[in-house]
Amino acid sequence: MNSITILQPDDWHAHLRDGAALKRTVPDLARQFARAICMPNLVPPVKTVAEAEAYRARIMQHVPEGIAFDPRMVLYFTDQTSPDEVAKIKASEFVNAIKLYPAGATTNSDNGVSDISKVYAVIEQLEEHQVPLLLHGEVTHQHVDIFDREKRFLDEVLAPLLQRFPKLKMVLEHITTADAAEFVLAQNERVAATITPQHLLFNRNHMLVGGVKPHFYCLPILKRQSHQEKLIEVATSGNPKFFLGTDSAPHSKNAKENACGCAGCYSAPMAIELYAQAFDQAGKLDRLEGFASHFGADFYGLPRNTQTITLVKEDQQIPDAYDYLENESIIPLYAGQTIHWRKV
Ligand code: DOR
Ligand code: ZN
Fold it and tell me: Model pTM?
């Protein structure tokens, strides 16, 4: 296949940041996706429906002329989130979900939930109203090895949570292990997962062999090749539990190439091409449309898009860097490398 036309895709997990960053991040994402779930880990976090609607208005100011982009908003779950906020999410035109970061798990997660048993009253409401709970699925205990944190979350947090709330609608975000893929497969249709381009295309050798490559560093961290292979298998299987979420997470070059570098890969400008490459390498390009354009919308109960995009098999070189903020730059995922697909 040298060309493929699919319904316009959506990104069910993206970070746009705020303020001056939006000038870079919003056009990049809006040129690729019709809709995106905009993550709430700002400083301070987006905690209420009112704050989410104000954030959405700031995003909308940066959508380029002639492009239709519909940011879907998410609240940030804290120990203080009120159970009453859930009905407000359900009633909101723009807010679709709530995101739980275990406190300390990743970028700007200090206000996250310290102990899931403290927020059962909110989770009860999520189950009642069928509002999706989006999860950063890693335990944060100091003594747990970084490569084991997702698996430990499944065993110690998620399995008991689903036993207590069997009808909970949830997305395990950016899964990175065969364990997470199998866990999701074993649950009912209310439990889904997003998968990033970096976890389909790369594994920890790409990040660590021959020198540390900080632009591959994200959380949850890249795992070994056997996990990558399982993620490719489920993403390209046609199972609607698995759908597209880039986790595109901008950090300036200086913040990444640093003695204490930030976690996050910036994939927004060519995300769909990166996914096309991963699906093509697996010989499953015909499964891209379901993953990228059908299953997420169906899960969230939103209509599928109606416009289409076309991708052609043509080499393109990913730029070395883009302008970002004032006098900064941002290095995209796979910068300077050649990929074989291009969105026309
Ligand atoms: O790598 C990551 N970057 N993982 C996350 O969970 C958060 C994100 C960010 O906001 O930078
Ligand atoms: Zn994220």
Answer: 0.98
